[in-house]
Design a protein that fits this description.
The protein contains seven helices and no strands. With 201 residues, the protein is an all-alpha fold. It has helices at residues 7-35, 39-65, 76-90, 96-127, 131-176, 180-188, 191-200. It has a single domain, classed as Ferritin, core subunit, four-helix bundle (Ferritin, Up-down Bundle), CATH 1.20.1260.10. The protein starts with 6 loop residues before the first helix and ends with a helix.
Length: 201
């Protein structure tokens, strides 16, 4: 790795880190789309995949503005976030909506990481008087923030509600079959607490 001897060099290295993140996500997002079952989640992820591909192109233009080759540097942070997300997707879920909820969590962790990375790079670019680079990166930052907000909307208006409904439906089935813990969960309005109690028996 090149020696970091100035803010200019640091900016370039940061862009290489972000470039690697975006390229990794162009491969990871399709896996999330395939694993997702909620239509709203799939469409949101597919839309952001197109944005991610454009973000890669913007970074390549930024490198050109700085007179540097478009070269990625392994981003250990994003690599870890993606690996963790893939582990969560591969787990055994009783309901598909629970997997969707896990996918949203993984996607938002990636978004928050990128928001921080872009914010730092933009601040450094502006300090260096590279408004052209900062403005270019700011477009991607706005898209990352918007994607995060959309994922929150999908979680709050669709996925999380359906995940809770699936749990409630199971509790109702248990109650109808004469399972006492199921009736207790519904009566208390606290299915999670009742379930954890059963698991300790």
């Amino acid at each position: 790795m090149q020696k970091i001897d100035s803010l200019d060099t640091l900016l370039v290295e940061q862009l290489r880190d972000i470039y690697d993140s975006e390229r990794r996500l162009t491969k990871a997002i399709p896996k999330m789309v395939k694993a997702a079952t909620a239509e709203e989640l799939s469409s949101t992820l597919e839309s952001h995949l197109a944005e991610t591909e454009e973000q890669c192109a913007r970074l390549e233009r930024a490198f050109g503005m700085l007179g540097e080759p478009a070269r990625a540097r392994t981003c250990a942070g994003m690599r870890g976030i993606i690996e963790e997300g893939e582990e969560h997707m591969a787990e055994d879920y009783e309901f598909d909506t629970l997997r969707d909820a896990a996918i949203i969590g993984a996607a938002q962790r990636a978004e928050h990481y990128e928001i921080a990375a872009y914010g730092t790079a933009i601040a450094h670019a502006r300090l260096l008087g590279r408004e052209d680079v900062a403005d270019l990166l700011d477009q991607s930052l706005a898209e990352e923030k918007n994607a995060d907000e959309k994922l929150t909307e999908v979680a709050e208006n669709c996925v999380n509600v359906e995940a809770m409904s699936a749990r409630s439906a199971e509790d109702d089935d248990e109650a109808e079959s004469g399972d006492r813990p199921g009736r207790s969960a519904r009566a208390n309005g606290n299915g999670a607490r009742a379930r954890s109690t059963r698991s300790r028996r």
